[in-house]
Amino acid sequence: MRISGRSSRRRMLGFGAALGGGLLASATESRAVDGVPGQLGIPLGPYGERSPFEKAVRWRRDTKTPETGSSFTPLQDSVGAITPSSLHYERHHTGIPTIDPAGHRLVIHGMVDRPLSLTMAEIRRLPSVSRTLVLECGGNSGSEWAVKTAPDVQRSHGLVSCSEWTGVPLSLVLKEVGIQRGASWVIAEGADACRMARSIPLAKALDNILLAYGQNGEALRPAQGYPLRLIIPGWEGNACVKWLHRLKVTDQPYMTRDETSKYSDLMPDGKARIFTFQMEAKSVITFPSGGQTLSGPGLYELTGLAWSGRGRIERVEITTDGGRTWVDAQLQEPRLPIALTRFRLPWRFEGREELIASRATDESGYVQPSREALIEVRGTNSGYHYNGIKLWRVQADGTVTNV
Ligand code: CO
Predict the structure, then answer these.
(1) CA 225 → CA 63, 113, 220, 323, distances in Å?
(2) Quick one: CATH architecture of 282-402?
(3) In whole angstroms, what is the distance from residue 69 CA to residue 90 CA?
(4) How far is the CA of 51 from the centre of ligand 1 (A)?
(5) Res. 8: pLDDT tops 50
(6) What's the whole-number mean pLDDT along residues 99-107?
(7) How far is CA 265 from the centre of its chain?
(8) How many angstroms is it from 152 CA to the middle of ligand 1?
(9) Residue 345 contacts by C-beta under 8 Å, 6 or more apart in sequence?
């Protein structure tokens, strides 16, 4: 279909009218701004900074030890589907080590025919791939299990981010060392002070895991595991071991601290599910969301993010009446598998209270459950793998709160 200049201009005027003449008001202001004389800018710099007027930052909860904790991506300020490396969420157990890549080694040993110690220079000589992938902490939205919920989308859902990751397929290196008969697990260990370690099933290690050294076009940030980390498509962030320095091939999991006392899911009967790696389909509206205020009735773009550890997002539905009726949102293309997918819906706020939420369906047919359905199966003991439908209350005065 061809859109002529005239008809697109008419559409613009339509949108202006929908805003109640708002666009015409800005046109008057822009003439005034044009009257300001230009001024000499600042000199060119070697590494980019954002505008000093942009204030979005990660949020972190105070902890007794500042080296331990999580920091949350400001999803309410995000646009598109990529998270800037500087705003990627973080979760650390003993701080961020400073590692000189010149001295860093990845040792691969255990049940292998030819143990290897690789330098970073050797790893970077191997055939590489790049993939845009979502990374979500297993504990993201943990506060939603409780009755008392976080006040905004950053604190309720901000332990999720999306980057383009570059590295070497782990399968390639594992084939090189020669896996011995009977091996079934790989223990991945980081070079941080606590030697954070996770047991990974060998089948997944041979499938699609990356030994990643690149993020969004440059080297990993130190907080993301510089110089080397595991990126495991669709699995909880904790398993994607940062500052990776050791892979040991074994015939059993090691039952490390972070797969037993942590990152396990306590069920209502007191038993715990362990090795729950897969992140399920999930979505959340980022505008309007908790803590934001609409300037008045009129047309807005309702928008948010959806993702699934199982593959592509197939559909996102929106309700503005607390779940009685649902309409399909537009999905940003291309819809990459296991990546954040931006959804959008033109929406008219009439100045009446509304309960808004999104519901994602992934390509496997999995549908994001309601909070009630999730709790019916999982109870409320668990702090991990919360992916329930997220409701926000838009009040008649335009303020938005958690529900
Ligand atoms: Co888990």
Answers:
(1) 21, 28, 7, 41
(2) Sandwich (2.60)
(3) 8
(4) 38
(5) no
(6) 98
(7) 20
(8) 24
(9) 301, 302, 303, 318, 327, 329, 330
The alpha carbon of 259 and the centre of ligand 1 are apart by a number of angstroms equal to 8
Looking only at Cα atoms, what is the longest distance across the chain?
A: 77
Question: 191 or 25, which is more confident?
Answer: 191
Query: What is the full DSSP assignment across 105-148?
Result: EEEEEESBSS-EEEEHHHHTTS--EEEEEEEE-TTTTGGGGSSS
What global pTM score does this model have? Answer: 0.92
Is the pLDDT at 9 greater than 60? The verdict is no
Q: What is the CATH number of domain 85-143+158-273?
A: 3.90.420.10
Closest CA to 362 of 343, 399, 386, 337: 337
- Amino acid letter, residue 151: P
Residue 118 dihedral angles phi and psi, to the nearest 5°: -105, 135
Q: Which amino acid is at 115?
A: P
Q: How far is the CA of 295 from the centre of ligand 1 (A)?
A: 40
Domain ranges of the chain: 85-143+158-273, 282-402
Which pLDDT tens digit goes with each residue over 331-377? Answer: 999 999 999 999 999 999 999 999 999 999 999 999 999 999 999 99
Q: Which long-range contacts (CB under 8 A, 24 or more apart) does 325-333 make?
A: 326/359, 329/302, 329/304, 329/358, 331/306, 332/80, 332/81
Measured CA to CA, the distance from residue 227 to residue 365 in angstroms comes to 37
